[in-house]
Structure formats: C-alpha cells, structure tokens
Design a protein that fits this description.
Number of helices: 10
Structural class: alpha/beta
Number of strands: 9
Radius of gyration: 21 Å
Order of helices and strands: HEEHEHEHEHEHEHEHEHH
Strand content: 5-15%
Oligomer: single chain
Amino acid sequence: MEAKLKELGLASFTLVGAPDTLTLSIRDSDAKKSVQVILANFPAVVAVDLSFTNIGDAHITELVEALKTNPFIKELDLSMNRLSGFGFATLGSALPATHIHTLILRNNHIDNDGVRRFVSFIADQPDVLLKRIDLSSNHIGDEGVAELSKLLTEPTKTSLTHLDISFNRFGVIGITSLASAVRHSTSLHHLSVRGSFGTTECSAILCDAVFLNESILSFEIWANGIPSEHIRAVEERLAENAKRTREVEAAARRATTIATTTRPEANLKE
C-alpha cells in the first residue's frame, strides 16, 4: 500500500487496517484535494479521517463528490475543522448517495440553522443509513437540539443509536424537546450531553427521561447538583437495559445457529 501511495504522489496519506477494511487518515491540509484519487484507487477504504485538516465550507462539495465514488465508506471524521452550518447542511444533502453511518464533527462551527437544514435533508430519506453522530463542541442551542431530537423517534432508517451533543449551549426548551424524544426512543443506545447546560432543572428533566427509556445503555452527563437517588435510579435502569439487550442478542444468536444447522425437511427424506 505504501508503494502505491508514493506512486500516486500521496505520501501524506495513511492507510491503516486489514486489506478489506482500510481507514484513510490525512494530516496534510493540502492533501484533501486528493481524496477522490485515493478513494478511486483503494475501494476497500471504509473510514475516512479528515480531522485537523482545515476543511471549511468551500471544500465540502468537492469532498462529498469524492465520497460518492466509494460506496463502502461507513465512517467520516471531520473533527477540528472550520465547517459552519452551511457545510453541515451540504453534507446532509449528500448522505442519501452514500453508505455513511457514522459522522464525527467535533469542534466545528455548526449552528442551529445548519442542524435544521441537515435534519430536513435526511429525516424522510429511506436511503440514509446514519446511526451515529458526534456534534460535541459546536454552537448548537435549543432550536438545534429540538431538530436533532426528531432523529431519535421518527420511524425511519435515520433513527440514531448514538448522539453526542456535549459542550454546546442549550437550556430548558432544548432539554424538554430532547427529553420527550429520549423517553420514546427505541433505537438510542448512547447519549452524551456533558457541559451543555448548567442548571439542575435541565439535569432532572433529562434524567427522568432516561430512566423511562428501555434502550439506552450509556448516558454521559455532569452530575453536579443531581440528587444521588436519581443517579442510582438511572444507573439501575441502564444496567437493566444492558441485561435485556444481552438476552435479546443471545436469543438472536441461538435462532441464527438453529437456522443455519437445521436441514430442510425435504433433505431428511431418504
């Protein structure tokens, strides 16, 4: 692989992993223009790491076109860049043409309007496979959280399993929308809201919702001011959810084993 990278003039790229599950990592900010070349030459790339590459809205259209050339990419990391709400929305408009299920967008400049447009692009698209999204350390407020909440409950393929909105800034209005979605979500497994609000009221609203949810396995929140009995109750709920999930998975494995080892009745006849 290294020889082929040098041959293509792409020494700043790194490919890591097994031959059939490669991760493309770029640390040279000028190399992003060559993403399309490498994806065309290495179809086994399933993850692209473009964090810390100074990518802004002006680059996102070109990047999206490159991603469309490889239908096997499942994870895209654009952390620590300069994407605004416009770039985020542009990315959302292209998701139906990709197989991406994980978006990592920590430390960008994504705002409420960008989130609203992103959600409008993907919420009703049956071809969008997005399951995990990390929007921590952006500029998302109450309106943005309310929009993201739609992706937790609507019965589409975009029902999220992992949502990280830590270190944004929202209040009771946003938390109330999120809590309502969390309470009724059957797909969400991981939720992180660390450092996104500073009131005990917000914490209590969300903790109550998590306690009523039967799918969440991991919940990250700053516990300052939350009564210890509330914390214990949520911890017990998460433990119950994890136990139930393990039992369901074990039953599914047993069913799969039976299905693959049982011979059709016609084959049993002599």
